[in-house]
Design brief:
about 425 residues, alpha/beta, Urease, subunit C, domain 1, TIM Barrel, eight-stranded mixed beta sheet, 13 helices, 18 strands, globular
C-alpha cells in the first residue's frame, strides 16, 4: 500500500521540522518527504491534509494495558485502541501486571497479545526484582533477551539500598535503562494526599514531598556510583526538579518524566473529595505544578507520560482514601499538552518533543520520528477541531478521568501504525 499525504503541516522535532509539505509512505515505512514523490513512487491512495498537522506517532513511557489480568480494566486490544485514538502509537507497559512481568513467559505473552491486536507498538518493561518484592533480582538478562526495553519496580520502589545498588550495577553491564519511581514507603505511611492545607482541612492522611525527595537523593547517589542510565518516573515536587537539574549539570546519565495530569491539576482539585483526583504520586501544591512546567520548558524534564491506569468503576466509587489511585490518560495526553501550548505555557516543538523524540531516545528505539526509513507511525490532527471530553465515549475500558466535560481545541482525525490506518475519527 503506497500512500501520499499532501499539503499537511509536518511537525517533527527530531528533524527540527515545521513546514507544509507532502509525506510518502510505502510498505509500512516513510519513504519520502517534499514536493516531489520519490523516484518510481505511484500512490495507491492520496490524502489531502490541507490545514491539518502531521505529527510522529506519540511514544508513551508509562501506560497500564490491563493484561495480564489484575485490578486494572481493559485488555491490550482495548487499551491500544484508546492509545491510537489519542495519537499514541508506541506504549511502554510497566511490570505491575498479574502475574508480574518478571519472566520471559509474561514478556512474550504481552508481545503476542500486542501482535494479535496489531494496533500499536507495545514495549514491555521488565520487573527489577521477583514479584516486585524488592528482595531478589529477577532474570534481568533473560528479560532483555525476550524484548523488555527497560526495567522498573512500577510503583513499589526497592526499600533496601543494597538490593538497589546490586540491581543498578548488574543492569549497567547490560546497557539497559532502569526506570525509578522515588517514594520512601515509611514517609508515605499510608498517605493519600499532598501534605498541605487541603489534606489538613479534609483530614486525609498526608504524603510529604520528602517521601519523594529523600528517596530521589538516595537513588541519585547509587546511580552515580553504578554509572547506569537511570530514568526517574513521574516527578511531582519542585525540589525534585532542582535535584535532577543539579545531577544533570554534574553529568549523571539520567533522564526523567512527569505525568500530564500533574501539569494541569493541583491539591486544590482534591477539595471536593472526588476519588477521580486520587493519583500516585499525589497532586501537589500550585508551586510544585509551576516548577514541573518550568522543568519541562527548560529541558530538565525530558518526557511527559499519560501514566494511564484504567480502573473498574467500583475502584473509584469508594471514599477518596480507600479508592485506587489512577487516571485513564491515553486519550487525553495529547489534548492536555496542546492545551498548555494554547495557554502559552509551552511552545509547540517542546510539547511535541516530550512525547515523540525524547521518549524514543530514552529507550533507544526507532520511533517518534518522521525520518526516511522509519516506521510509518503518525497522526493527522485538526488543530481547529473543538470537542468536549465525555467519559462514557472514551475507548478505554477504564473511564476514570477527572477531565470529564473539559473542552479541547485540536482533535486527532486519523492515526497510522506501520502505514495502516488504525484510527479514524468519524465525528471530525
Amino acid at each position: 500500500m503506497k500512500l501520499a499525504i499532501q499539503n499537511g503541516r509536518i511537525i517533527d522535532p527530531s528533524q527540527n521540522l515545521d513546514q507544509v509539505t507532502n509525506l510518502y509512505l510505502s510498505r509500512g515505512r516513510i519513504v519520502g518527504m517534499g514536493d516531489q514523490a520519490p523516484e518510481g513512487f505511484t500512490a495507491d491512495q492520496e490524502i489531502d491534509a490541507s490545514g491539518k498537522w502531521i505529527l510522529p506517532g506519540l511514544v508513551d513511557l508509562q501506560a497500564r494495558l490491563g493484561e495480564p489480568g489484575s485490578n486494572f480494566a481493559g485488555s491490550i486490544a482495548s487499551e491500544t485502541k484508546a492509545a491510537v485514538a489519542g495519537g499514541i502509537t508506541s506504549v511502554c507497559c510497566p511490570p505491575d501486571t498479574s502475574p508480574v512481568n518478571d519472566s520471559q513467559a509474561v514478556t512474550e505473552l504481552i508481545q503476542r497479545r500486542a501482535r494479535q491486536a496489531s494496533t500499536a507498538f507495545v514495549m514491555p518493561i521488565g520487573a527489577l526484582t521477583i514479584d516486585l518484592k524488592g528482595e531478589r533480582l529477577s532474570g534481568i538478562y533473560s528479560l532483555k533477551q525476550a524484548g523488555c526495553v527497560a526495567l522498573s519496580q512500577a510503583n513499589t520502589p526497592i526499600r533496601s539500598a543494597l538490593t538497589l545498588k546490586n540491581a543498578l550495577e548488574y543492569t549497567s553491564t547490560l546497557d539497559m535503562v532502569v526506570m525509578l519511581r522515588c517514594e520512601d514507603q515509611q514517609l508515605k505511611n499510608s498517605g493519600v494526599a499532598h501534605s498541605g492545607p487541603v489534606s489538613s482541612r479534609l483530614g486525609l492522611p498526608e504524603i510529604p514531598p520528602s517521601a519523594e525527595t529523600t528517596a530521589l537523593a538516595r537513588d541519585l547517589i547509587l546511580v552515580e556510583e553504578a554509572g547506569v542510565h537511570a530514568h526517574f518516573s513521574q516527578l511531582s515536587c519542585a525540589r525534585s526538579v532542582e535535584m535532577i537539574a543539579d545531577a544533570k549539570k554534574r553529568g549523571l546519565p539520567i533522564t526523567c518524566d512527569v505525568a500530564i495530569h500533574q501539569l494541569h491539576l493541583s491539591e486544590m482539585d482534591v477539595l471536593g473529595f472526588n476519588s477521580l483526583f486520587h493519583v500516585s504520586p499525589p497532586l501537589r501544591s500550585m508551586r510544585d505544578k509551576q516548577a514541573l512546567l518550568m522543568g519541562l520548558k527548560s529541558g530538565v524534564i525530558d518526557a511527559v507520560v499519560s501514566d494511564h491506569t484504567p480502573l473498574q468503576k467500583d475502584e473509584k466509587l469508594l471514599p477518596f482514601g480507600e479508592s485506587m489511585p489512577g487516571i485513564s490518560g491515553l486519550e487525553t495526553l495529547l489534548p492536555l499538552l496542546l492545551k498548555l501550548v494554547q495557554e502559552n505555557e509551552l511552545d509547540l516543538l517542546t510539547a511535541i518533543r516530550s512525547v515523540t523524540q525524547n521518549p524514543a531516545k530514552i529507550l533507544g528505539v526507532q520511533r517518534g520520528s518522521l525520518e526516511i526509513n522509519h516506521p510509518a507511525d503518525l497522526c493527522i490532527i485538526n488543530p481547529e477541531g473543538v470537542w468536549t471530553l465525555k467519559a462514557d465515549e472514551m475507548l478505554s475500558e477504564g473511564q476514570n478521568t477527572p477531565f470529564q466535560g473539559w473542552e479541547f481545541i485540536g482533535q486527532v482525525e486519523q492515526t497510522f501504525f506501520q502505514g495502516r490506518s488504525v484510527y479514524r475519527n468519524n465525528q471530525a
